[in-house]
């Protein structure tokens, strides 16, 4: 059996006990005895991404690319320090850096979608007039 499939089955067999993303129960929110399926970082990436994606797209927010990168850098630095230098991070720091990354990711995706919308709309207008 493929190693990836074995890994996925192993993680799913512990659903509610450990997060699916990193497998470390102490790094995930708990309610009662149930462990969230995602760690703090991934949970906050997902929450902030979903909320900001809706807000940014509806209001057609075009965050400057430099600000997008600034939002994403803290998580990249924190995650890299943990991975490569065994620096321990707190769950609060994981949540904050994940939230910032979710905002940056939503801003980047919004810029992409707005660009594609404008491109498709302009092509449709040129076909109608031509």
From TrEMBL:
The keyword Transmembrane helix applies. It comes from the Bacteria. Keywords: Membrane, Transmembrane, Transmembrane helix. The chain crosses the membrane at residues 38-57, 64-89, 95-116. This is Putative membrane protein.
């Amino acid at each position: 059996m493929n190693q990836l499939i074995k890994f996925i089955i192993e993680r799913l067999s512990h659903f509610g006990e450990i997060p699916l993303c990193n497998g470390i129960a102490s790094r995930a929110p708990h309610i009662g005895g149930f462990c969230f399926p995602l760690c703090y970082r991934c949970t906050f990436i997902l929450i902030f991404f979903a909320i900001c994606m809706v807000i940014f797209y509806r209001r057609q927010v075009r965050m400057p690319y430099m600000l997008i990168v600034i939002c994403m850098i803290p998580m990249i630095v924190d995650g890299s320090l943990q991975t490569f230098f065994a620096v321990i991070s707190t769950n609060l720091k994981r949540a904050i850096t994940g939230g910032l990354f979710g905002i940056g990711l939503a801003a980047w995706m919004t810029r992409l979608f707005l660009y594609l919308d404008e491109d498709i709309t302009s092509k449709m207008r040129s076909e109608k007039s031509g």
